[in-house]
Design goal:
heterotrimer, A alpha+beta, B alpha/beta, C alpha/beta, B: alpha/beta, Rossmann fold, Ubiquitin-like (UB roll), de novo design (two linked rop proteins), 3 domains, 5-stranded mixed β-sheet, 4-stranded parallel β-sheet, C: alpha/beta, Alpha-Beta Plaits, 5 domains, 7-stranded mixed β-sheet, 6-stranded mixed β-sheet, globular, binds flavin mononucleotide, binds iron/sulfur cluster, binds FE2/S2 (inorganic) cluster
């Protein structure tokens, strides 16, 4: 079940839309923010709140990269490896993350601090390589700066 | 005289995020003008200006607005496509960061013109900071009566909301975006019916790109006449180019339509980094076919074509590669993107894009076989023209482009059983 | 706008060089199909929205720059289409190659082989060359669900399954999970389906990805022998079913038929609920109680014994001391003969059935007031309604395919108003009105007043004019506390302003504590709204049984007991005497009351299990135990049969021929697909009739039907058309029928607003389970495996007030006993109401209730005086 605060936030988004189904993405964001990820009972709670079939909600959640069905680390790191970042050797940064934090793409660090995703372009291609940590954008990364930046996330 | 009235991004450094600054520099003049002159005038001006959609397809914007305005069904909606997911594209982000009120003014003009009461900005999930910025900007506009009930005494109403996507490139495709906004899996719809008649909630809907909306106040400010004289005659107006890759000064450049590719790269962006030579350019986002250095005379607009390629301007994302880049690897990385982003609705794209990816990966790893190039061409040929939406086509166009222009590099990978560039850059 | 052409009705287009005219709007694929041009498809499915994903149906349209998916393209005037060019073949072959690259080559072990579209098309277009050198997708077959095997390696992602589940069945239980290449079809849980198990997805799947576990790996499609058409006997809808029989004569499976009634739909009971026919607890031999034990005897001995005992009781105590229960599960022929045996053979009018709890009273009052033609409507036409009002009925469980049609109506824009509890329509309702039980019928009355404020009744039916002039109604203001007047007025407005309104009611209305008044309110609503009426019959042949005179005061025909002409005709035909018309027969509960008092000494029960299915089943069981003779004719050793002196094994609907009348009053046939031990009910009865000195001599059930046609003017008309039901539509298509027997005078005492029964504490509402709706279901392994745990559901406030947490074991008390059941909390349920699922064990939850006989109809209305609740350990 979702905390009462999440429920009221979800109910608030309803007024933006002509029907409850349209509020599904915002509702999933809210649920994930409160629960950390979207396990089946969170999806069920969202479905109940929006009066939608459970399977519909799971189908939509699973379509999107931003929604996670398993608990990850405390912070989600999405390092862009798409072309512009690739040209700036972002793949080398993957090695740095592996060495320094034990992070592999698709996995969570042993200390449960980070989950790493090899990301697609995040629209920061003029300041490559770029990454998103949770919802913070970091650009112009180097082997040194990436370590230093991640050190700030406990 | 401020630059605000005739430029999309008047100042590449400053962010105009306070409404008084925007007003002071001439903001909302277009809206006031429209309120006096009426909806028909707005549509006429857009048509006369020759504005074409900046989302990639270049559809004549005036026709779209007119179609929604004419439809008698109610309610109507406007949606701003701010999903900007085409790799290498970041110009919409710049508009939203630097001059967000211009978009709101464009959307208010649209609401007034087509009589839509509610609008959504479908914002990329990867732009979280902009979500809050836009909510704030909307609140400022509402407070000042530029939107809201009976905004500016026009009798029209507009409530604007920001809707965050959640990481799916296909949701930038207009009909998939509408499905997604409706809380469904973001898969494209069959057309007809078209969005203008049957869009969000099955109602007439105007869906346009951020940059397209942002052009409308400029048209009204400087007049259709002068606007149509900017850039190419068939696709006039200013255009934002997102330039990235191996150039000295990557960034967004606001230039007239039809500017030659070479001018963008060498004059505006300072040429290739480190004095190296240019090997290849993707002219309009990864959905467009790659070009070689001898294609640089191409003019960047919706009608000009380069030899052997379809449209080149796409989203206006110019990605520049220097001589040290492996084209097989680049083709692979792009194929991987398409395979990752295929929505899975149609057979050729769902199965084919991943097949392309797998073959290219093998090649890049030196495991390619003699027949792979022919196979790759056939697989691409089987996708192109048969997929449900343009994503599948794009994946094929991209791969075929690399094979056409850099076939020798592919052969070298197969023959040498290794990457001559030493694997990933 | 862009397709004004489609607005025009007739479209001329050229396909493969020939000109065709088709009615629009229509897709190119369908236009071709109508003209016998077959375009291959994988994701196209009639009756649901086109999808356009598989790309098999690509065609070339002149003037369009790429191949077009004909399933999603509207045919337009002047279109020139090619469907079979070399270019198209290349494309289709390519699509097949794409489908096959991740498809395992396991046809030899796949149950679908032989009826697989992918296999067939691969043969047609040439198999792929196998130039895919990458690793195929691997995902182990999931057998975690009790009934549906899910094999995602074979899936070609046509999404027909998810679309039929959402768009046709309205269950939305499965969905595409993931994106792109990493998609699979999954139920919400990822393992068990926990769905409505209608089987639609299994039928829709073109490959071997979704298969029924019931016949897994034990047949090949090419082993199928004969096929028979029949009618499902699980409820009153009467869905058409194909029985596929194996070459060895055993049942392979049942599949939905494209009959006018169900048009390809079935529910879980129809699709999965057939294993009971081979249940080990089937009765095989007649049994007689000797020294307290039921022991097998020969048919001859059993029938001789029954006949002589019946005769003895009749001769000693008179016909009045004998009674019978007819069965809506049995055919017209069976019920006709049971009634003949009772009346002519034993001189008793004491015959009734479980229809007493619902249809008998509803049909009599609603039909009597509105005319019988108005009491039935087509199940399929429900989907075209503009507004639907369900009155204390959940059609999704009571008449599942009708329920699905309500969902379809909702999806096409109808306003669906659920009055009372209807959990099956949870995602398909516009408004729900759930007043407390004690006031719910008064609120319905207030709704009628609100409708009357807006809409004046038209039509000249005198009886209705008189009724509306005299029926007392509360106003929405009077009922404000029970249901806000705005809600009542809003709903009234919706109903009054909709063109095509449908009303649904079933047993809850028939057993209303507010008496016949509620039924009159319902009939008046139907009249004022000019609504289509759907009266749910829970058995497959309730109408047929009533038509056969299996009511204490009716003769077959049906004709009233007092109809002198009918009596003369029947007595002549039977060459026997009917009991005197003054002999008032006993109704359902009166039979047990009389048995308890010793006035009824012998009871003949055909295909009913009163010890389980009637309220106050403890009392019913005691009464049964007091009988001198209890004969039970059934297919199982039911709770009732356990108490019998004689048990006679009968055959199921899959093993025999006969006819039913469904809730549309359509004549439907059943057919013998497989053989079985036991005798058909009618033939047992025929032998008993003869033993009791009646002329019988029926050789086949058709012979009985021929006699029915002589007795009943309707059946003569009905039978004129064929039994498979394409044209048997009386009375749904008009005509007042032959049975306007209602005298409004008899209803006069009930025109006043009934008093509100005051009670404290919470209300108890029964939730009928979808899967286990009776004895046959309880012997179907598949249905048992999917049945949900019984629950006591309540909202948070009620749970808090009793300090109940989810999962607690609760004990509910009434003056009749107590029941243990698990608690479930759902914040969206209304206040002060506990929703109890029927627990099914021993005599089920009904034993916890007492009953009142409703005046006029004698329907037993459940109630309890005390309700208590405790938390268990
Ligand atoms: C796969 C795919 C992705 C797209 N992504 C975007 C996008 O991110 N932003 C955008 O404005 N248009 C995108 N488009 C184009 C839209 O479908 C649509 O043409 C555009 O939003 C129309 O706006 P316009 O008329 O202003 O150009 C995409 C199209 C496809 C096929
Ligand atoms: S081409 Fe097909 S699978 Fe690919 S994104 Fe479009 S609809 Fe989805
Ligand atoms: S059996 Fe019926 S309810 Fe269950 S998943 Fe299949 S279609 Fe849906
Ligand atoms: S399971 Fe069957 S019906 Fe469903 S998508 Fe796969 S192939 Fe199609
Ligand atoms: S390619 Fe990395 S941010 Fe665009
Ligand atoms: S049948 Fe037309 S695309 Fe599948």
């Amino acid at each position: 079940m979702l905390p009462a605060e999440a429920v009221s936030q979800i109910n608030n988004t309803l007024e933006k839309y002509p029907d409850s189904r349209s509020a599904l993405l915002p509702a999933l964001y809210i649920a994930q923010r409160h629960v950390g990820h979207l396990p089946l009972d969170a999806l069920h709670a969202v479905a109940t709140l929006l009066d939608l079939p459970d399977a519909h909600v799971r189908g939509v959640a699973s379509f999107h990269v931003m929604f996670r069905d398993s608990p990850g680390g405390r912070h989600l790191v999405q390092l862009c490896t798409n072309v512009s970042c690739m040209l700036a050797a972002s793949s080398g940064l993957l090695d740095v993350l592996k060495e320094h934090f034990g992070l592999r793409p698709g996995a969570t660090s042993p200390d449960n601090r980070f989950t790493l995703l090899e990301g697609e372009c995040i629209g920061e291609c003029e300041k490559v390589p770029a990454m998103l940590v949770d919802s913070d954008v970091h650009t112009g990364l180097t082997a040194e700066s990436i370590i230093e930046i991640l050190a700030r996330y406990e | 005289m401020s630059k605000l009235i005739d430029r999309i991004i008047p100042d590449p450094v400053r962010c105009i995020t306070g409404i008084s600054a925007y007003e002071a520099e001439g903001g909302f003049r277009a809206l006031k003008k429209a309120a006096r002159a009426g909806p028909d005038f707005v549509i006429e001006e857009i048509v006369r200006a020759g504005l074409r959609g900046r989302g990639g397809a270049g559809f004549p914007t005036g026709r779209k607005w007119a179609a929604v305005a004419e439809d008698t069904a109610t309610p109507k909606y406007i949606i701003c496509n701010a999903d900007e997911g085409e790799p290498g594209t970041f110009k919409d982000r710049l508009i939203l960061e630097k001059n967000p009120f211009l978009l709101i003014e464009g959307m208010a003009l649209a609401a007034f013109t087509v009589k839509a009461g509610v609008g959504y900005i479908y914002l990329r999930g990867e732009y979280p900071a902009l979500f809050h910025l836009l909510e704030d900007v909307i609140a400022q506009c509402r407070k000042k009566g530029y939107i809201g009930p009976d905004f500016m005494g026009t009798g029209a109403d507009l409530e604007l909301y920001v809707h965050r996507g959640a990481g799916a490139y296909i949701c930038g495709e207009e009909t998939a975006m509408i499905e997604s906004l409706e809380g469904k899996r973001g898969q494209p719809r069959s057309r007809p019916p078209y969005t203008v008649n049957y869009g969000y909630m099955g109602k007439p809907t105007l869906a346009s790109n951020v940059e397209t909306f942002a052009n409308v106040p400029i048209i009204l400010n400087i007049g259709a006449e002068s606007y149509s004289k900017i850039g190419s005659p068939e696709s006039p107006g200013p255009k934002l180019f997102s330039v990235s890759g191996d150039v000295v000064r990557p960034g967004v450049y606001e230039l007239p339509m039809g500017v030659p590719l070479s001018e963008i790269i060498y004059e505006h962006c300072g040429g290739i980094k480190g004095g190296r030579a240019l090997k290849a350019v993707i002219p309009g986002g990864v959905s467009t076919a790659v070009l070689r250095s001898d294609d640089l005379a191409c003019r960047m607009d919706f009608t000009s074509k380069c030899e052997g390629s379809m449209g080149i301007i796409g989203s206006g994302a110019v990605i520049v590669f220097d001589e040290e880049t492996c084209m097989v690897h680049t083709a692979y990385r792009i194929a991987k993107f398409f395979a990752h982003e295929s929505c899975g609705k149609c057979t050729p794209c769902r199965e084919g894009t991943d097949w392309i990816r797998a073959i290219l990966l093998r090649m890049e790893q030196g495991l390619g076989v003699e027949d792979d190039i022919r196979l790759l061409r056939e697989v691409c040929g089987n996708i192109a023209g048969n997929s449900f939406c343009a994503l599948g086509d794009s994946a094929a166009i991209s791969t075929i482009g690399f094979l056409d222009k850099f076939g020798d590099e592919f052969e070298a990978h197969i023959k040498g059983k290794t990457c001559p560039f030493g694997g990933p850059v | 706008m862009n397709n004004m052409n489609n607005m025009k009705n007739m479209i001329t287009l050229t396909i493969n060089g020939k000109k065709f005219e088709v009615k629009g709007p229509v897709k190119v694929l369908e236009a071709a199909l109508q003209n016998n041009i077959h375009i291959p498809t994988m994701c196209y499915y009639p009756k649901i929205e086109s999808f356009g994903g598989c790309r098999m149906c690509l065609v070339r349209v002149e003037g369009m720059y790429r191949l077009q998916a004909s399933c999603s393209l509207n045919a337009e005037d002047g279109m020139v289409v090619e469907t079979e060019t070399p270019e198209i073949h290349v494309a289709r072959k390519a699509m097949l190659e794409f489908m096959l690259i991740n498809h395992p080559l396991d046809c030899p072990t796949c149950d679908k082989a032989g009826e697989c579209d992918l296999q067939d098309f691969s043969v047609l277009y040439g198999a792929a060359e196998g130039r895919f050198h990458e690793r195929k997708r691997t995902e182990p077959e999931s057998t975690k669900d009790p009934l549906i095997v899910r094999n995602m390696e074979r899936c070609i992602m046509c999404t027909k399954c998810t679309r039929v589940c959402a768009e046709l069945q309205g269950a939305s239980a499965i969905n595409v999970i993931g994106r792109g290449k990493h998609t699979s079809i999954e139920p919400f849980s990822g393992s068990k389906f926990d769905c409505e198990y209608c089987g639609a997805c299994i039928i829709a799947c073109p490959v071997g990805s979704l298969m029924s576990k019931l016949h897994r790996h034990n047949y090949r499609p090419w082993d199928t022998g004969e096929q028979f058409d029949s009618t499902c006997s699980y409820c009153g809808v009467g869905c058409g079913i194909h029985m596929q029989i194996r070459e060895d004569g055993t049942l392979q499976r049942l599949i939905p038929a494209e009959s006018e009634v169900n048009q390809g739909l079935l529910c879980a009971r129809g699709f999965f609920g057939y294993e009971y026919i081979s249940s080990p607890s089937r009765l095989t031999s007649p049994l007689i109680r000797k020294d307290g034990k039921l022991v097998p005897v020969s048919w001859q001995e059993a029938l001789k014994y029954v006949a002589s005992r019946l005769k003895e009781i009749r001769d000693a105590s008179g016909g009045k001391s004998l009674a019978a229960l007819a069965s809506p599960k049995c055919t017209i022929e069976d019920n006709y003969l049971l009634q003949k045996l009772m009346r002519a053979g034993l001189g008793s009018n004491n015959i009734d059935s479980s229809a007493r709890m619902g249809l008998a009273g509803l049909r009599r009052i609603v039909g009597g007031l509105l005319g019988h033609a108005r009491t039935v409507s087509y199940v399929s036409e429900m989907a075209q309604s503009d507004a639907v009002l369900t009155v204390c009925s959940d059609p999704v469980t009571e008449a599942p395919v009708l329920g699905v049609r309500v969902r379809n109506a909702y999806d096409s824009g109808a306003a669906v108003i659920t009055f009372g509890h209807a959990p099956g329509l949870r995602h398909h309702r516009s408004v729900t009105m759930q007043p407390r039980l004690k006031e719910q019928w008064h609120v319905l009355g207030a709704l009628l007043s609100a409708v009357l404020e807006i809409k004046k009744p038209s039509g000249s039916r005198e009886m209705m004019q008189e009724l509306l002039g005299t029926l007392m109604l509360p106003t929405p203001e009077d009922m404000d506390d029970a249901m806000p007047r705005e809600v009542v007025r809003k709903v009234a407005e919706t109903l009054a302003t909709s063109a095509n309104v449908s009303l649904v009611a079933g047993r809850e209305l028939a057993c209303s504590l507010a008496g016949p008044w509620s039924i009159m309110v319902f009939a008046a609503l139907a009249h004022v709204l000019e609504a289509k009426v759907y009266l749910i019959s829970e058995g497959p042949n309730e109408h047929g049984l009533l038509d056969m005179g299996c009511e204490p005061d009716m003769l077959p025909g049906p004709a009233p007991m007092t109809d002198a002409g009918a009596r003369r005709m029947i007595e002549g035909l039977w060459d026997a005497r009917l009991p005197s018309e003054k002999e008032k027969g006993l109704s359902l509960m009166e039979i047990f009351e009389a048995a308890g008092a010793g006035d009824v000494k012998g009871l003949y029960v055909m295909g009913e299990n009163p010890a389980r299915s009637l309220p106050d089943s403890g009392f019913v069981t005691d009464a049964l135990a007091k009988l001198d003779l209890l004969v039970v004719q059934d297919i199982f050793m039911t709770e009732t049969a356990e108490l019998a002196h004689v048990v006679l094994p009968a055959k199921t609907w899959i093993e025999r021929k006969g006819t039913y009348i469904n809730m549309e009053r359509r004549l439907l046939g059943i057919d013998a697909g497989v053989g079985a031990e036991g005798k058909e009910d009618w033939s047992i009865l025929s032998e008993l009739c003869e033993a009791l000195g009646l002329k019988a001599g029926y050789k086949r059930s058709d012979d009985v039907f021929s006699e029915v046609m002589k007795v009943s003017p309707y059946y003569c008309e009905l039978h004129a058309s064929n039994i498979r039901g394409e044209t048997c539509k009386w009375p749904a298509e008009g005509g007042d029928g032959h049975e306007a027997i209602l005298d409004l005078k008899a209803l006069r005492p009930y025109l006043d607003i009934p008093p509100v029964v005051e009670g404290d504490g919470f209300d108890i509402v029964l939730e009928k389970p979808l899967f286990l709706n009776g004895t046959t279901a309880l012997h179907s392994d598949a249905l048992l495996r999917i049945s949900k745990e019984p629950l006591a559901r309540m909202n948070t406030a009620l749970a808090d007030s009793y300090k109940i947490r989810p999962g607690d074991t609760l004990r509910f008390f009434s003056e009749r006993g107590e029941i243990e059941i698990k608690a479930h909390i759902d914040p969206y349920l209304p206040d002060n109401t506990v929703y109890l699922t029927d627990t099914q064990e021993s005599a089920g939850i009904l034993k916890y209730f007492r009953y009142n006989k409703m005046p006029f109809t004698n329907a037993p209305c459940k109630y309890t005086q005390k309700t208590g609740l405790k938390r268990g350990e």
